């Protein structure tokens, strides 16, 4: 439950990580079944914790995509049912745009234009937002996202799921001993992480490695690339703020490095609170408020859009 000024009245997250951990990754059918079982309970809990009743709500916001089809379908059919029952409009939100708004939750001082880096399990996007809600895509990954690469390597190491926090924790005790490649670091604003993942895998298969150093070398290569590209975008675009969001922005190592290595004044760096870096509904509510104020109502005629892209700036 999010208020119009982006104060978070309650934020309830039902994590499926323990369920996925048993299988070493996400199994779509299990994920959507879990959604179906939990979603009403989570909505009820969010209303209770916010001390709100449905009649007080302005709208029901829901993720339209990108994401797993079954999970999106559960969310959308639930949101539409609640919208009907409560007589509220339903606002379909782009999951990526939700992440972009996560850094604005509970703070009103974010200045635009901003350069935004979104690094999650499915995406790695570099964006120029000339103003709130208006995006120009500067670069994106040509293959894996860093989160996805972390998840895959952690699985091969038998370390569990999700891999990002596990690799990051091990990395804190290791050093960058293996100097893995920094793909595309010297050119442009696009990313590529599959070559790095392959280099890590080769070291793994060769069997001669220290696990902490492997994690530290892998994370260092990823974060070096992210920071190099951000600094390149900063030089080109001269933004007022730099915003880093998405699950990988929960990494304490990355957060610390961003604070020291970006070529901007410290107060220009905007990071979401840790709990809003990884997937959550509060950021979807924040994006919905922007849509309500700036766009015509969507109406009820929308369905899941598993491969939805971030919309480009109009005009
Ligand atoms: O944004 P998110 O919660 O879900 C997607 O939209 O994909 O991001 C999840 C990704 C996973 O790949 C996970 O391994 C990574 O974020 N992640 C982290 C950390 N916490 C989550 N990566 C590095 N360090 C972390 N602490
Ligand atoms: Zn996400």
SSE layout and pairings?
Elements: H1 17-23, H2 28-50, E1 60-65, H3 69-86, E2 90-94, H4 95-102, E3 114-119, E4 124-131, E5 134-140, H5 146-156, H6 163-171, H7 194-206, H8 211-237, E6 241-245, H9 252-261, E7 269-270, H10 274-277, H11 282-294
Parallel strand pairs: 1-2, 3-6, 6-7
Antiparallel strand pairs: 3-4, 4-5
Helix pairs in contact: 2-3, 4-11, 5-6, 5-7, 6-8, 7-8
The protein binds 5'-O-[(R)-(carboxyoxy)(hydroxy)phosphoryl]adenosine and zinc ion.
Zinc ion is lined by residues 95, 99, 120, 279.
Average pLDDT metric:
96
Helix content class: 40-55%
Shape: globular
Q: Label the structural class.
A: alpha/beta
What's the total number of strands? 7
Bound molecules: 5'-O-[(R)-(carboxyoxy)(hydroxy)phosphoryl]adenosine, zinc ion
- Rg on CA atoms, Å: 20 Å
Sheet-strand content, in percent, reads 5-15%
User: Unreliable runs, pLDDT <50, ≥5 residues?
Assistant: none
Element order, helices and strands? HHEHEHEEEHHHHEHEHH
CA distance, first residue to last residue: 33 Å
Number of helices: 11
